[in-house]
Amino acid sequence: MKFFDRKSIIELLNRRVVDLKEGYRQNLALIGPEFIGKTSILEEFLSQLNDERIVPIYLPLAEADFNHFADKLVGRLLFNFLKNKKTGGEENIEILLEQAQKLIPSTCLQIRRVRQNLEKDKHWEAYRDLLSLPEIFEQETGSFCLIILDEFQNLEEFDLPNIFQELGKKIMVQKQSIYIVTSSARSKAQKILTEKLSLLFGNFEVVEVGPFSIRTSLEFIEEAFKEHHLEKSYKNFLVDFTGGHPFYLSAICERVIAAVQQEGQKNIFLNVLIDSLEQILFDKWGLINQHFSRIINSLGTKKGKGFAAEILLKIAGGLNKLPEISDSFTTNKSLVPAKLNQLVESRILTKNGNLFCIIDKLFAFWLRYVYHRRLSSLRDNAADLSASFKNDLRQKINSFVQISGNELEERIIDLLQSFDNELFQLNGKKHRLPNFSAIHPLNFNGSTSQNLKGLIAQTSGDLWAITYKEGMILDTDVTAFLSSTKDLNQRVTRRVIISINEIETNARLRALQEKMWIWNITDLNFVLNLYGKPYIVK
Question: Taking the model in full, what pTM does it have?
Answer without folding.
Answer: 0.91
